[in-house]
Specification:
The protein starts with a helix and ends with a strand. The protein is built from 7 helices and 40 strands. The protein is mostly beta strands. The strands form 7 sheets. It has a 22-stranded antiparallel beta barrel. Strands 8-13-14-11-12 form a 5-stranded mixed β-sheet. A 4-stranded antiparallel β-sheet has the order 3-2-5-6, with no helix packed on it. It is globular, with a radius of gyration of 26 Å.
Length: about 800
């Protein structure tokens, strides 16, 4: 560890040397505020805030709609403007020492600034927004993500309460997200969005996260778990996560980030953009590589996003976005057996397993302010994802995968004569979604109504070829399936403003049509099946503004997860009359900006998850026909808090604390439930604790930011005991797939040193500071978490 501390010490000295003149070089910002028609907005409140150091300045626009804010230290700012009757508008601004900058903010009528986001996340400091949101929300802003130098989405999401992240390969490529005790496998019970568009390749037919965008692409992450989910679908059992990409900048700007570390880690990230003649363009490219948590696991990623936004006549905007993601990973699907894990937890017998993935995506979004009180947004989107995973084993009990192959004869020949399986998949999805928001009066009350429709289409091509050798990339075709889905949905949600009360009823309709064709069936002629489901999803939320900064809220709403195509239609074309999985979710909570520099949100919740899809017969176990009827109960408390002592004391020196804590005392099987563990189908698990549902999780950060630009922080991530199976087995099984996962605490540390004169930031971060080996997964065998990761880098502001 000595070399780490030497580098960190060098960064401290560089920070002070490079920033000695920064305090004296005060900058000035002139912020001008206009409405959607281009008219000046006098009397608007303008706020400039540096979250990382607790610095904040406020001003009010004059008759010309402008406010001048002098005496600003260099740094990255969020500039926001608000006025009653308008939505909050925000822009990001990087302010060099001694410069004068001008920014323009456009206020939309009503509450229209957030039409593409899941919640009013960027309204975090707005009393109007706080009183309107009737549920639990959490926002991970750019400052939080950058200051802690998160290297994966899983690391980022652990900073939000209520979320449980299960590691897999150690590089964060396919995060497993569980909310409030739901099974995190492949994030299948969570709706993942990017700028309001589904991230998963088949949210209606197979909601699994084999593809996930890298965290470097995002500016903000929003998590919604309340009754506002009625406006989103289809998978809303636990919650909605929306990843927000940055908007094109108003002036020429950008950044270059270069980082490297142990385990072959390299990361290069370039983001540049400008606005010319009312059209803004942003280009974002990242290339990243590194080793995973085990030997013979390595990944190379490329991610390119181009985003353009144009103003059309002052009341309309058009935003276009295109993205390419490529992945080449040497990574296996199988975990370790108990004896293998005890001998060496970081070994990997399957050296020849590879994952190849390519995804192309795009969207077009048109926003039109109609009159003074209506906004119509229409978003069209589409993506194509191809992934080929060649592997020799799907779990630790499959050693090797083809016992009938006489040429294989066991693990001794794994790298010579044993064959493999090519899971070859391609997915296409596309859709269109218009939404209308209208502000109006009803019975003398102010009312805001959102209405939306969506048509969504999916096509899955699934093939499996079995190769004769470990490195084969062609083989005998054993599966050839096509699965299609058509989904039509609509919703209406109304916010009724009753003084300090905001009441939000809503109703959603989901209609899904399924089709599956087995091209290998019936002598090659194919076997097909078709069916469909329809489900209404109501919701009701209420919020009471106790003061301008404190809100009490409560809500109730059903959650919905449609069955997968493979579950509702069998390989022979037979149809199972499965209903959607449903949950009933209750929330009550408090959200308060106690004072500038201290915020807290506490939420009590209960979720009754019913109608789950489970094996149909008591003796069937895994692989049996499926039916509805499974039940689980979830209840607990979430707490999120942040304290910025510098803001409280009006000081540029900012010691700060961030906490995200989840307590889940209730997470159990209910009703008549039997084990899904092979060989135990007659054993009741009613009352047992759910797998991968720890009673307590904690993410706590203690940091200090110096006004000269130096910041240091330490983070503790605590995960309680978990069970790896529904029998709540404590002692591990020989295959490693059953047994307890012991509680563990991991420590991360980061140092950031801003060099304003060089427009740069140097950083050093260490993940798993004490190099603990932690068991993180048993689903397909035993998997260790990442070892100690040391990374250092430089970010240059262009």
């Amino acid at each position: 560890m000595n070399f780490i501390f030497k580098i960190a010490g060098s960064l401290f000295l560089a920070a002070y040397a490079g920033t000695a003149l920064a305090v004296d070089g005060e900058a000035t910002v002139r912020a001008c505020v206009i409405d959607a028609a281009g008219a000046a907005v006098p009397g608007a409140a303008v706020t400039l805030r540096r979250t990382a150091v607790g610095f904040e300045r406020r001003a009010q626009t004059d008759g010309a709609g402008c406010a001048v804010v002098p005496g600003l230290p260099a740094g990255d700012y969020q500039v926001s403007a608000s006025r009653p009757g308008f939505a909050l508008a925000t822009v990001a601004l990087s302010l060099p020492a001694g410069e004068r900058r001008e920014v323009q903010l456009v206020l939309q009528p009503g509450t229209f600034a957030e039409e593409i986001t899941v919640v009013a996340a960027r309204l975090a400091g707005s009393p109007e927004a706080v009183q309107r949101v009737p549920g639990s929300i959490h926002v991970l802003d750019r400052e939080t993500l950058e200051s802690s130098r998160v290297c994966s989405t899983a690391e980022a999401l652990r900073k939000a309460p209520g979320l449980m992240m299960r590691d897999e390969e150690g590089f964060g490529l396919r995060p497993n997200v569980g909310i409030r005790g739901l099974n995190p496998t492949r994030s299948s019970k969570v709706l993942l969005l990017e700028d309001g568009v589904p991230v998963t390749y088949a949210p209606y037919g197979d909601n699994a996260s084999y593809y996930h965008p890298p965290v470097e692409r995002f500016e903000t992450i929003e998590v919604l778990k309340g009754s506002g989910q009625v406006a989103y679908g289809p998978v809303t059992i636990g919650g909605v996560i929306n990843y927000i990409t940055p908007a094109p900048p108003l002036s020429p700007s950008g950044s270059v980030t270069l980082a490297g570390g142990n385990r072959a880690y390299r990361n290069g990230h370039v983001r540049v953009g400008d606005t010319i003649g009312g059209t803004g363009v942003l280009v974002d490219y990242m290339k990243k590589q590194g080793d995973g948590a085990r030997e013979s696991t390595h990944s190379d990623l490329d991610d390119l996003t181009v985003k353009a936004s144009a103003s059309l006549g002052g009341r309309q905007t058009l935003t276009l976005k295109a993205n390419y993601y490529g992945e080449d990973s040497n990574v296996t699907y199988s975990g370790l057996r108990l004896d293998e894990y005890r001998a060496d937890p970081r070994q990997n017998p399957f050296h020849n397993d590879f994952f190849y993935g390519d995804r192309y995506g795009g969207s077009a979004r048109h926003a039109w302010a109609i009159g003074a009180n209506a906004l119509l947004t229409t978003q069209a989107y589409g993506s194509f994802f191809r992934r080929h995973w060649w592997r020799q084993s799907s779990n630790s009990g499959q050693r090797p995968n083809d016992a009938a192959d006489a040429a294989c004869r066991g693990m001794a020949n794994l790298d010579t004569t044993c064959g493999n399986e090519g899971r070859l998949r391609s997915y296409a999805q596309w859709g269109v979604e218009p939404r209308l928001r209208v502000g109006h009066r009803l019975l003398g009350r102010n009312v805001e109504t959102d209405l939306g429709l969506r048509a969504h289409f999916e096509d899955q091509e699934r093939r499996q070829e079995n190769g004769d050798t470990p490195a084969a990339r062609r083989g005998v075709l054993v599966e050839d399936n096509e699965r299609r889905n058509q989904a039509y949905s609509g919703f209406v949600q109304t916010r009724v403003l009753l003084g300090r009360w905001t009441v939000t009823p809503g109703l959603r309709l989901e209609r899904v049509r399924y089709e599956r064709t087995n091209r290998l069936g019936a002598g090659g002629l194919g076997l097909s099946g078709r069916t469909g489901i329809t489900q209404w999803v109501p919701g009701l939320g209420a919020a009471w503004s106790a003061s301008s900064a404190t809100t009490l809220f409560a809500g109730v709403h059903p959650g919905l997860a449609p069955p997968r195509t493979k579950d509702v239609i069998g390989n022979a074309g037979g149809v199972s009359e499965l209903e959607p999985e449903l949950s009933c979710n209750y929330e009550v909570g408090l959200r308060s900006l106690v004072r500038s520099g201290l915020s807290v949100e506490a939420t009590g919740f209960r979720m009754d998850y019913e109608n789950q899809i489970v094996p149909a017969s008591l003796a069937g176990g895994l692989g049996a026909a499926l039916t509805n009827g499974g039940r689980t109960a979830h209840a607990g408390l979430e707490l999120a808090a942040r304290l910025d002592a510098g803001t409280l004391a009006a000081s540029g020196h900012n010691p700060y604390v961030r906490v995200a804590w989840t307590w889940l005392p209730v997470a159990r099987f209910e009703g008549t439930r039997f084990s899904n563990v092979p060989g135990f189908a007659a054993v009741s698990v009613s009352g047992n604790r759910l797998p991968y549902a720890p009673k307590a999780t904690l993410s706590a950060t203690l940091g200090y930011a110096h006004p000269a630009g130096l910041e240091a922080l330490v983070e503790a991530v605590r995960l309680g005991d978990q069970f790896g199976d529904d029998l709540n087995t404590v002692e591990p099984s020989a295959d490693g797939q059953r047994g307890q996962l012991p509680a563990a605490t991991l420590w991360n540390a980061t140092v950031n040193a801003r060099l304003p004169r060089l427009r740069s930031t140097l950083f050093v971060t260490v993940k798993n500071l004490f190099d603990r080996t932690v068991l993180v997964d048993r689903a397909r065998g035993m998997l260790p978490g990442s070892p100690r990761l040391f990374q250092a880098g430089l970010r240059v502001q262009l």
